[in-house]
Design goal:
By secondary structure, the chain is α+β, with helices and mostly antiparallel strands. It has 31 helices and 34 strands. Strands 23, 27, 28, 29, 30, 31, 32, 33 and 34 form a 9-stranded antiparallel β-sheet that branches. Strands 6, 7, 8, 11, 14, 15, 16 and 17 form an 8-stranded mixed β-sheet that branches. A 6-stranded antiparallel β-sheet has the order 3-4-5-9-10-19.
């Protein structure tokens, strides 16, 4: 029911005369105007045109000086575009800055260039804010002694403190027990442990002052009118809000030396040199950053030379305990748009916990009253205003801040984006559930074309209409003041970012499409038959072969605690599991939806990608009609599905959505909320959690400081031997990273309703090569040691011949003859010892996957006779067979049977058809056979292997009951497979 207007509550507004009817059509601008002249003047002032490159650029590289083909960036000046002043005769506020706009080539080969914003261009300055020449050295700073471990006495003391508190997460009682045992062992020698007890340990950690931002709190209480003699309990309660100064937190991020090469200081627009297509990757490459810089300069030209710091916020309730009664917390996180997406995803303290918001509770009698609901909403917004108020002044007047490269810069802040799920977006944007927080489409027909919401439009209609009209026509809760109204240039409707996890993975896929399939099967086949079909779908999913990062559902999908990881895992295999049980249009609906999800999740999005996203969305809207035509659903007016419509615009505004997904904040929940809670005694846990987080932050900051000074190179033991002048040799077996060590760890893991097969690793190493495969250090002593034994173990008598021809190809790479035609007497013969390995390590550049700060990822390719004590595991791989071809036309699929040094014995797969399957979008392959129906076995060099591949059986083409098939039987049982392009985001990008 719509609320009644509170005559005592006013709301800030900028216009009160009439409703603006003319919106600005520039991307990212939400301004509205009453007449055409106002609109024209606005566009001339705030949206002057900039070109990319003039015609003939590619034929005249001299326009930008000499081209440097190095990894570092070379400055180039940009010519004035021909259309820079189309239709405008007057003085432009940004003329001087536009003339100074520069272009730079990025990366090796000059394949990408950027136009940087000419006004807010992050000029270096001294600590008083006076600009320095571009080539000026950084201001002098006090040099730290390379062996100063303060507040720790030495490296061993720091490493022990970090291990006990950060890694082992040992309780105070267990720390005391360990230190007592240690002290006892030292009695005879008269020594003492590094710490006397947990109090001593905590005291040293707490004495760290580097990068410390203290926690504060304030209280909020209801001050409104009590409308009867029996006030509700919540009206007299006092609500605590804990927070840290967001300004100091941002200072620490900017001053972090580990981020100095991972920050974008200036808004830019990035283009592909080959076709001039726009590219969106990190936040500062989006239109929002550029337009915000224009707006800041337009409001105050004296801000020229400053550094724009976009503030990114995120909040979401999280449950830390269910078994002992539901315990919830409401954390608030902060990051900045200057940090690149890979760093934010790698959880390198670029996302910081800055607050715990209050969660008012009351009796059942009062929980659903309009007054209590209104109080909860306003408490949320008032708390955000109070926490962020220290940023208000430097949003108007730049302040001088030290950066990680030891230079000072003048910084101006802006509220840029807010990471939140749909329920949180409803609260933030002050709208009613089932309406869209981004546009004015009516909740009964969300997919109609509608104008975008804006702060100005919202304030105006609130001033003009009664609350009932706002509620019913616009979906606005008009008696709540959003926190953004207290900050300059802030618009909550513009700030709300795309949320892949909740809108697409949990919402569109799990809650909508998967549920629709089950309802469709019940509607068509009846409940009893539908249950049998769903059981068969579960068996198909359970029979899929293992793969790195694949989530397994051994007991089916019908369990209560369904997580985002479960939904992501199901997305990878579901489309092949339902094929044959549902019409083709249902399969095509899933294909279009999955392609949309994987396209928007890419690390770099181009204009071509945006066209593909639009195409996938159009196909999804077309094919999903099969559910409505079958009578399964009545309407597609669903907010989370409707949000897909806004993705192309939001990508242009904020760049690649993977940098603003709520999966980032949900991952932060584990480290900042859940694990600290589990370490407390659960009595008034919040204070203990805050203290734990503060100590973790101090250890992280001091570790970064020690690393910067090179004090943590090597290990404690290796450093001690170095000091003593002693050399110690570690055998390969002591550093075994082979699958046996992995198996030992895995066998101890408890298998829950779902579990991840093998997570893989993220690497923070810089990208030196696109992909590389190497063997693990330990070979298998119990397996074949010569070619004869290998032949017997594989059961392939042709192995000696294949090996001879492989050696010939390696010695004579220019020989163009078919290997089958080469006489054996021309081939070298090998009769020496061989070493067999159970796994190989594949390292490749995959920034769209979970990866390190430079986008590198590592996974293991298994070829072992026993995996997790369940059966053999022989993985499939992509082999580069034509480096000049794109996608699957340059790759072949093979199954690794044996891994030798430096080669592998493989069984080839043949592609079926000239392109992907039209329904699923995946290529189909089958095990290759040669003459006499023998397996097509070959030996290849491991350097030709790109990475692991995942295959899913084409279940619908087999008359095989998957009831008794285990995952390790999959590749041997079925005879045709889909190349699973949905296995992960990198696979999706290379298997087109």
């Amino acid at each position: 029911m719509p609320p009644v207007r509170d005559p005592g509550r006013s709301r800030p507004t900028q216009r009160a005369d009439c409703v603006p009817q003319l919106p600005c059509d520039e991307p990212g601008c939400n301004r509205w105007f009453r007449n055409l002249s106002s609109l024209t003047q606005h566009k001339r002032t705030y949206h002057p045109s900039f070109s990319r490159y003039p015609e003939g650029f590619h034929n005249n590289p001299g326009l930008f000086g000499s081209v440097e083909h190095e990894d570092h960036v070379a400055d180039r000046s940009s010519p004035l575009p021909d259309h820079a002043s189309d239709g405008y005769q007057g003085e432009d506020l940004l003329d001087r800055e536009r003339e100074a706009m520069s272009a730079k080539f990025i990366g090796p080969g000059s394949k990408v260039y950027r136009n940087y914003h000419p006004g807010l261009n992050a000029r270096k300055c001294d600590d008083r804010g006076q600009f320095l020449p571009d080539d000026a050295p950084p201001p002098p700073r006090a040099e730290k002694v390379p062996n100063d471990w303060n507040p720790y006495r030495n490296r061993l003391e720091f490493e022990l403190a970090d291990f006990l508190f950060t890694h082992a997460e040992m309780s105070a009682k267990k720390i005391d027990m360990l230190l007592e045992i240690w002290a006892t062992s030292l009695l005879e020698s008269g020594g003492q442990p590094l710490f006397m007890n947990h109090v001593d340990l905590y005291g040293v950690i707490d004495s760290t002052h580097v990068g410390n931002v203290r926690w504060e709190n304030f209280t909020i209480q209801y001050t409104g009118e009590e409308r009867n003699n029996d006030p509700a309990p919540w009206m007299s309660d006092v609500y605590d809000v804990w927070f840290r100064d967001p300004r100091e937190v941002i200072h620490n991020i900017l001053a972090n030396s580990g981020f100095r090469d991972e920050l974008d200081y200036v808004p830019y627009r990035e283009y592909d040199t080959s076709n001039d297509q726009r590219r969106w990757q990190d936040f500062m490459s989006g239109d929002w950053a550029w337009e915000q810089a224009d707006r800041i300069l337009g409001d105050d030209p004296t801000t020229a030379g400053a550094t724009l710091v976009p503030v990114i916020l995120g909040s979401d309730k999280t449950t830390v305990s269910v078994a002992t009664g539901q315990t919830d917390y409401y954390p608030l996180y902060l990051s900045i748009g200057n940090v690149r997406n890979t760093v934010r995803h790698a959880h390198r303290n670029a996302v910081v916990l800055i607050g715990f918001l209050a969660m008012p509770k009351t009796t059942r009698e009062h929980a659903s009253t309009p007054a209590f609901r209104r109080f909860k909403r306003q408490l949320f917004h008032s708390s955000l205003t109070r926490i962020l108020h220290l940023l208000c002044r430097p949003m108007k007047v730049p302040e001088t801040v030290l950066f990680g490269d030891n230079y000072y810069r003048r910084v101006i802040y802006a509220l840029a984006a807010y990471i939140a799920d749909y329920e949180e977006q409803v609260l933030l944007s002050c709208i009613i559930r089932n309406w869209c927080p981004k546009c004015l489409a009516h909740r009964d027909n969300l997919d109609e074309n509608a104008l975008r919401r804006s702060r100005e439009h919202c304030d105006t209609v609130i001033e003009e209409f009664e609350l009932c009209k706002l509620w019913e026509t616009y979906g606005i809760v008009g008696d709540i003041v959003p926190f953004t109204n207290d900050f300059p240039r802030a618009d909550i409707h513009q700030m709300l970012s795309p949320d892949i996890l909740h809108q697409l993975i949990k919402g569109g896929f799990k809650d909508h499409l998967v549920d629709w399939v089950e309802r469709y099967l019940v509607h068509i086949h009846g409940k009893s038959e539908a249950e049998k079909i769903l059981d068969d779908i579960d068996r198909r999913i359970a029979a899929v072969a293992p793969f790195t990062g694949l989530r397994r559902f051994p007991q089916g999908r019908h369990f209560k605690q369904w997580t985002g990881d479960d939904s992501k895992g199901l997305m990878k295999v579901y489309i092949a599991a339902i094929e044959g049980h549902v019409p083709k249009d249902v399969v095509r609906t899933f294909r279009a939806f999955l392609e949309f999800c994987y396209l928007v999740r890419q690390n770099v999005i181009t204009e071509q990608t945006l066209a593909e996203i639009d195409d996938a969305l159009s196909r999804f809207h077309c094919f999903r009609e099969v559910f409505q035509n079958a009578g399964v659903i009545e309407t597609f007016s669903l907010p989370r599905q409707h949000a897909m419509k806004h993705y192309p615009y939001l990508i242009r505004q904020f760049s690649a959505p993977n940098g603003l997904c709520s999966s980032i904040t949900e991952s932060k929940h584990v480290k900042a909320v859940k694990r600290p809670y589990w370490r407390t005694n659960h009595f008034k846990a919040l204070g203990q959690m805050i203290l734990i987080n503060q100590r973790l932050d101090k250890l992280t900051v001091v570790q970064a400081d020690f690393q910067e000074r090179g004090m943590l190179n090597g290990t404690c033991l290796s450093k001690a031997f170095e000091v003593l002048g002693t050399y110690i040799h570690f055998s390969d077996e002591s550093f075994d990273s082979d699958c046996h060590g992995q198996d030992a760890a895995d066998e101890g893991d408890e298998q829950t309703a779902s579990y991840e097969e093998d997570a893989g690793d993220t690497l923070d190493d810089p990208m030196a090569i696109n992909a590389h495969v190497s063997l693990t250090r330990k070979y298998q002593r119990a397996r074949a040691k010569n070619v004869g034994a290998l032949t017997a173990e594989l059961g392939v008598p042709e192995i000696p011949t294949i090996l001879c021809r492989f050696l010939h190809s390696q010695l004579h790479p220019t020989d163009t003859r078919n290997p089958e035609d080469i006489p054996l007497y021309e081939c070298p013969f090998f009769d020496g010892k061989i070493r067999v390995y159970n796994s190989a390590c594949s390292t490749f550049f995959a920034p769209s996957n979970l990866s390190g700060t430079h986008g590198m990822r590592r996974e293991y390719i298994r070829s072992c006779p026993m995996w997790r004590n369940e059966g053999p595991r022989y993985d499939c791989v992509f082999v580069v067979t034509d480096p000049q071809a794109d996608g699957m036309r340059g790759l072949d699929v093979a199954r690794i049977l044996w891994t030798l040094f430096p080669c592998a014995v493989v069984h080839w797969f043949d592609r079926i058809g000239d392109g992907p399957d039209t329904a699923t979008g995946m290529w189909i392959v089958r095990p290759s056979r040669c003459t006499h129906n023998l397996r097509n076995i070959a030996i290849i060099h491991i350097d030709t292997i790109y990475r692991a591949a995942h295959l899913i059986p084409v279940y619908s083409s087999h008359n095989i009951d998957p009831r008794g098939i285990k995952p390790h039987h999959s590749y041997d049982t079925f005879h045709s497979f889909y190349v699973n392009k949905y296995a992960d985001h990198h696979t999706f990008e290379i298997t087109f």
